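pasting input
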Amino acid sequence: MGKIRRKLLDWKRRLSDRHMYSVVVLLIAIVAGWGIFQYKRAADLRQELDNQYNRAFYEMIGYVQNVEVLLMKSLVSSTPEMTAETLQQAWHQANLAQTNLGQLPITQDVLANTSKFLSQVGDFSLALDRQNINGEVVNEEQYKNLENLHQYAVSLQDGLNNLQASISGGRIRWNELADKGTQLFQKQSENLNVQMFSDIDQSFQEFPTLIYDGPFSDHMTSMEPKGLTGEDISVEDAQKRLTDFFGADRIVSVEHAGDIQADTLPAYNFKIKFKDRPEDEFATADITKKGGHVIWMLYNRDIGQEALDVEKAKKTGLEFLQSKGYTSMKDTYYIKEDSTATINYAYEQDGVVVYPDLIKVKIALDTGEVVGFESKGFIMSHTKREIPAPGITEESARGKIMKNADIGSVGLAIIPTKFGTEIFCYELKGKLGDKDFIVYINAVTGKEEQVLIIINTPEGILTM
Amino acid sequence: MSEMKSRKVIILLSVYALFFSLLIPGIFNFAFAQSQRASDEQLIARAINGEARGESYEGQVAVGAVILNRVESPDFPNTVAGVIYQPGAFTAVSDGQINVPIDPNSTVVKAARDALNGWDPTGGSLFYWNPATATSKWIWSRQIIKAIGKHNFGK
C-alpha cells in the first residue's frame, strides 16, 4: 500500500516537472474531443441512412395506394380503352412500389411474397393492357383474378397504414422500421393466398406478350424440357460422353465432382483436366442424367495472340456443333470479348429460324478451340415443330414497316415469349437513319409483335 | 538530463499519435471508399470479387448467375443494382468490399461476362450460403440444388 502511494506521488512529482502535467491533460482532452467528433459523425451517418429508409418506406406506401386505386378503377371501367390505360398505369406504379420495397432494411425471406405480389400485379396488368389495346375486354376469369389482386392490395395497404400510424412520433427510426416492418410483412405473407399466385401463373401461359431481356435467350420459365431426349445414363456413361465431347486424345482425366438436384434438369457435374496444361486450368461441365446432354461447359484458360477472326470462328463453331450431332444450326448473334467470340446458334427448320432452340458456343480466337458451350435453351425447347404456311404475304409484312425505313432482308422465324409460348413471325431486318432494327410481324395475324434495335459495336451485335 | 526528458516526451507523443490513428475508423479503407459509377458488368464483377474471390471459376460464374437469376425472379428487385444493393443481401456490399477496384483483366470480369452471356452453373438458384458458417434456420430450409466449392446453391 505504501509502495503504491509512493509510486503515485513519484509520478505526480515527475508530471509537475516541466509542464508534463498539463501536456497529459491536453492530450486526454484531445482524445476525448476526437471521440466525441467520431460519435457525432456516426450519428449523422445513421441519420442519413434513416432518411433513406424512411424515403423508401413512404414512397412505397404511396405507390401501393396508387396500385390499389388503379386496380379498383380497372374493375369499374367498361371500355377496353379505359381499362387499358388504367392497367398500364397500375403496372407502372407496381414497378415503382417494388423498387422501393427492395430498399427497405427488412430481410428477403419476409419480403419475398409481397415482392412477388407486386411483380404479378405488374405483369398481369401489362398483359391485360395489351389485350385491351387490341379491343378485347377482360374475360370472367381474368376479372376474378383482378378482384383477388385488388383484395390483397387493400389488405396490404391497410397493414402499411397501420404501421405508419403506430410508429410513435411520426418519424420512423431504422430499428423500429426493421422490427415492426418485419412483423407486418410476415403477417401479410401469411394472409396471402398462395393459391392465387399459381392461378395467375397459369393464366399467364395463354398470353402472347413479349418481354425480352436479351436476344431470345432468357425466355425460360419453369417448363417441361422438350429437348431432353434419351434414357438415364450412369456416371461412367457420362464420363465417356464428355471424353468424346472434347476429344479423347486431349484429356488427362474426367472427374465426377457432384450432382445437381435441379427439379427441371438433374445432372452430373464434372471437372475435366487436359494434357500439357497447368494444374489450375481445367474445364467444368454439367451433363444431364437423362440422355447425357451437355447443359453447359466452361474452360477458363489463358488465351494467346488472336489468330482467327469472327467469321472463321463462326464456321469453326458450326463444324463443332455438327460433329456433336446438332445439325441444321445457323449463327444469329455474336459478341467478342477477351480474345474469345461467343456465338449464338439457332435451329433452322425448313428455312425458318427457330430462336428458342438456342446454343451458345464460345471460341478462343488463338487456336479456334471451343472453350464454352451452353445449350439449356435447346434442351428446354427443341422439338420438331408443325410450322403452318404464313397467313399473310411477305409484301403485306413489308408494308407494315415505316415508309422511310430501308428493309435489308426478310425471313421467317419463330420467337419465344416470356411465358413459354412461341410465335411464328416474319423477321424484317432494316435500317432507319443510321440505326439498324429488326421487326417481327406475326406471320398469321399480321400484328407487330416485337421491335428490336441493333447496337453494332466492334465487340459484336447487341440488341435492345 | 533535459536531453533524456525531451526524448521521453517525443516517445510519449508518438505513442499517443499511434493510438489516435488506430482510433480513426476506416483510415486504411479510405483509398477504396470512393464509390464509382459502374455498369452492370463492373457491378457484378465487383460483387463476385467480394463474395467469391478465392473460389474456382465455376464458383465465380455461379455468384454472377445467382444475381441475374434474382433480377429475373419476381421475388427480388428488377435491376442488377437493386439486387446487389438490397439491404442485407450480400455481405460484400454490407462491409464495403464491393468498392475494391478490380483489374480489368481479372477472372472475375470474365466470370461476370459469362454470367451475363447466359451461363448458369447453378441450375437457376436464387440463394447461396456457406454450410460451414451459416446459422440462419431459414437459409437451411432452402432446397439445395448444387454445391460448388465452399458454397451450397439453392432455391
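fyi Chain A touches chain B through 57 residues (CB under 8 Å).
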